[in-house]
Task: inverse folding
């Protein structure tokens, strides 16, 4: 290589990837043949992390690809698309959204093209309608217009009422919609060939569980969820885990929270006190505890005082 | 109903919607309070209310759909003035006037707690009207929630399932209750309290607003507390308050919503609650 060429190569390495023609590839690992996962940071969505906080994945069959969640910005979605394209030329037939939260579907617009079908739980369109505009406004303030202006809410055109099997060619994915739990439109994806469960935010590992649906509903479905014959789980947030052992911490947290809240309600304590002290014994066991525990407690209190 | 019509009259609603959906940057810099003093309070003079009432809210709205707020009287028992009404205003919400509470003349209500939606980083004002005819204002600043919370229902099926249910609960006497005879109680009303500001993506139509706009609480027919509410009150409106019982045998609640439903209930005062 001539010194001049070497200089050019070095110069190119200095150019931030986002200024180049090709988007940077999102870091993914192949956890089983044809099953790829990107682990998001355990953090809140910010301008700096470009919304990259949720775990995303894609599964490659003989004929087609299914994407599971698209990330917290269109930029992250494009990086996921680039990661897919450098591994397979097969068409992306399905984009599956595990629920309506922005960190899981703000990247949808990167995948909008003829022949790609967006899939979600039956309640997802309603959640997008009632929450989507608020999310866009709120995250424009947090992440900035450059990242958020290109976000489009892409509602699913294929809805899962209860369960649905998608065929990627020799590879069946079983989709299951659940009653209100983490949110009111949770959907899981099970790849039978690799015995991998993509649990969306029904499963949190290390990252404190976030409750935006029904605490009782969530607790009630854990046994059914544990019965999925998976070997491993890709949680919505946090590292991969063995199944169903990966549920243990989350189950303990939800039980502790519910127990503390029930006791406070029985004692006539106000909701503000629950926000400050419920599940305090769990603080050292989770990342982002102080970011989410008070809201979990507030939401749980307003649900359980109707018991 | 007159107040509700005024609240949601077309010109005001239009102005409020514009404020709500203006670009974020402009919304950050814009202080809606002077305009709200004009629209809600007819530009009446505002006195400093620091010695009259306090607003208690968390510094951060942990859950945008459910932010606890407590309004507490700071008037000393020796003060000859009394609080006739308190208006709660969440400046940057799509419908800023969250609630107007009218306090029963003989009930001596000293604290009111409820839960509100908070859409944005915003000042929250409480304006007390005293028996001297003057308005007194106090305020607090609340940061918006981050994360996935939204000022929308978490579990719409559940909300629909208990619409119209009402619960009353009497708590142990307030801490100074032994001396003052004050009692703390709570009324809950199952209602989705929909904002109506959300567009149905399929029909492109706004979902109609559907909320409790009037609530009246009394003891044997004597007013304890009335609320004119708007869409900033959280789903399943919940009011916890401290008052002086008048020896009544019954506590009554009557709520009306924007579709004309009337929900009424009464409970015996003795033997319920803790």
Result:
């Amino acid at each position: 290589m001539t010194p001049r060429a070497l200089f050019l190569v070095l110069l190119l390495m200095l150019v931030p990837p986002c200024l180049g023609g090709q988007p940077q590839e999102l870091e993914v690992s192949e956890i089983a043949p044809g099953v790829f996962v990107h682990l998001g940071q355990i953090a809140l969505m910010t301008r700096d992390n470009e919304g990259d906080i949720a775990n995303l994945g894609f599964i490659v069959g003989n004929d087609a690809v299914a994407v599971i969640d698209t990330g917290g910005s269109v930029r992250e979605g494009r990086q996921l698309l680039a990661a897919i394209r450098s591994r397979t030329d097969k068409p992306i037939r399905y984009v599956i959204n595990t629920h309506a939260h922005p960190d899981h579907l703000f990247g949808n617009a990167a995948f909008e093209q003829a022949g790609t079908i967006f899939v979600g739980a039956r309640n997802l369109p309603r959640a997008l309608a009632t929450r989507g505009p608020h999310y866009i406004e709120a995250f424009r303030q947090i992440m900035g217009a450059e990242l958020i202006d290109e976000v489009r809410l892409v509602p699913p055109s294929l809805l899962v009422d209860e369960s649905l099997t998608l065929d990627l060619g020799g590879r069946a994915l079983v989709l299951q919609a659940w009653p209100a739990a983490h949110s009111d439109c949770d959907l899981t994806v099970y790849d039978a060939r690799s015995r991998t469960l993509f649990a969306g935010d029904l499963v949190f590992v290390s990252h404190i569980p976030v409750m935006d649906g029904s605490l009782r509903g969530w607790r009630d479905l854990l046994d059914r969820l544990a019965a999925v014959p998976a070997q491993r789980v890709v949680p919505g947030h946090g590292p991969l885990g063995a199944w169903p052992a990966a549920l243990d911490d989350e189950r303990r947290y939800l039980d502790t929270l519910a127990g503390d809240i029930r006791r406070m309600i029985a004692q006539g304590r106000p909701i503000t006190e629950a926000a400050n002290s419920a599940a305090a014994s769990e603080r050292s066991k989770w990342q982002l505890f102080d970011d989410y525990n008070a809201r979990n407690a507030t939401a749980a209190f307003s649900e359980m005082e109707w018991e | 109903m007159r107040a509700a019509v005024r609240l949601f009259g077309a010109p005001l609603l239009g102005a409020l919607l514009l404020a709500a959906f203006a670009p974020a940057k402009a919304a950050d810099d814009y202080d809606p309070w002077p305009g709200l003093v004009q629209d809600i309070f007819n530009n009446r003079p505002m006195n400093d209310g620091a010695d009259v009432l306090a607003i208690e809210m968390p510094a951060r709205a942990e859950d945008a759909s459910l932010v606890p707020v407590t309004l507490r009287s700071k008037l000393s028992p020796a003060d000859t003035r009394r609080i006739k009404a308190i208006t709660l205003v969440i400046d940057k919400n799509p419908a800023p006037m969250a609630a107007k509470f009218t306090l029963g003349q003989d009930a001596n209500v000293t604290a009111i707690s409820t839960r509100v939606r908070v859409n944005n980083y915003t000042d929250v004002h409480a304006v007390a009207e005293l028996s001297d005819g003057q308005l007194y204002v106090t305020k607090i600043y609340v940061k918006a929630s981050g994360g996935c919370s939204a000022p929308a229902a978490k579990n719409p099926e559940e909300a629909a399932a208990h619409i119209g249910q009402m619960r009353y609960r009497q708590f142990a006497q307030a801490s100074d209750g032994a001396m003052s005879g004050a009692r703390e109680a709570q009324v809950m009303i199952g209602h989705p309290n929909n904002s109506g500001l959300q567009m149905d993506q399929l029909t492109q139509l706004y979902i109609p607003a559907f909320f409790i706009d009037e609530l009246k609480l009394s003891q044997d027919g004597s007013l304890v507390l009335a609320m004119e509410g708007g869409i900033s009150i959280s789903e399943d409106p919940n009011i916890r308050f401290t008052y002086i019982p008048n020896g009544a045998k019954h506590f009554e609640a009557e709520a009306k919503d924007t579709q004309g439903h009337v929900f009424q209930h009464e409970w015996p005062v003795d033997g319920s609650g803790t």
In short: Chain A has one domain: 18-246. The mean pLDDT of chain A is 94. Chain A touches chain B through 47 residues (CB under 8 Å). DSSP finds nine helices and 13 strands in chain A.
